[in-house]
Design goal:
The chain has 228 residues and is of the alpha+beta class. Helix content is 40%, strand content 19%.
């Protein structure tokens, strides 16, 4: 991507930030992703080759640092990158206020993946928590498991091999809004958008998780009325 050839600081910043996929990569790094595969998992549609190119460019620009130890390679935001990460989340708050998510862009896996990155395993009341989500679709439910463990969190598309601590039944839109902090658990249950089969301790955790999104307190703007 060529530069704008301008002295304007906005143009200079856009040369780093405004490439396709770069904000998503920075977001994933800010959410704690350190491995190439982790970053890729949280960016459906991003190819391995493009991710490698973007990471190389971000390293060159001083936004990301690459650490290697034997066969293990990790990526992390530098001081410059962390500041850019804050800007990324500020941009997200603007998007939460002014933009609406199209139905086709509502991805239950990505919503749970993002939520899993926000949950601190050290805050869990048990060493391991497994929640099954039965997501209603056009025909049969789509099953996803949120596996939270002191060694790390993940989203599984097949049973992880541990007993379910609880089951949440919902639809795609309600799940995405709950993960984004736009739909409270109590309200979702009252409106029957979500149904729970879970012990009280897990109900409390689910209510807490639904408030973890950095955009949970962002009120959507009212759509302007057309002028007659």
């Amino acid at each position: 991507m060529g530069g704008y050839g301008q002295y304007c600081p906005i143009a200079l910043a856009a040369e780093v930030f405004a490439q396709r996929w770069t904000p998503i990569i920075i977001r994933n790094l800010a959410l704690g992703c350190v491995h190439f595969g982790d970053i890729l998992e949280g960016a459906p549609g991003l190819s391995r080759s493009v991710l490698a190119q973007r990471l190389h460019t971000l390293q060159r620009d001083g936004v990301v640092e690459r650490r290697s130890s034997g066969r293990t390679t990790e990526y992390a935001l530098t001081e410059m990158g962390r500041e850019l990460g804050d800007i990324c989340f500020t941009l997200g708050a603007w998007g939460a206020r002014w933009r609406e998510v199209a139905p086709g862009d509502q991805d239950p896996y990505l919503a749970l993946w993002t939520l899993s990155r926000l949950i601190d395993p050290a805050s869990l009341p048990r060493p391991r928590v497994v929640v099954r989500f039965d997501v209603r679709r056009s025909r049969a439910p789509h099953h996803l498991w949120l596996l939270l463990d002191r060694t790390g969190n993940e989203v599984c598309v097949e049973t992880p091999g541990f007993p379910d601590d609880g089951v949440v039944t919902t639809d795609v839109s309600s799940l995405v809004r709950w993960c984004a902090g736009r739909l409270g658990l109590a309200a979702a249950r009252e409106s029957r958008e979500m149904a729970l089969a879970a012990p009280p301790w897990l109900e409390r955790e689910l209510a807490r998780w639904g408030r973890l999104s950095p955009y949970a307190g962002v009120e959507p703007a009212r759509s302007p009325q057309p002028v007659s």
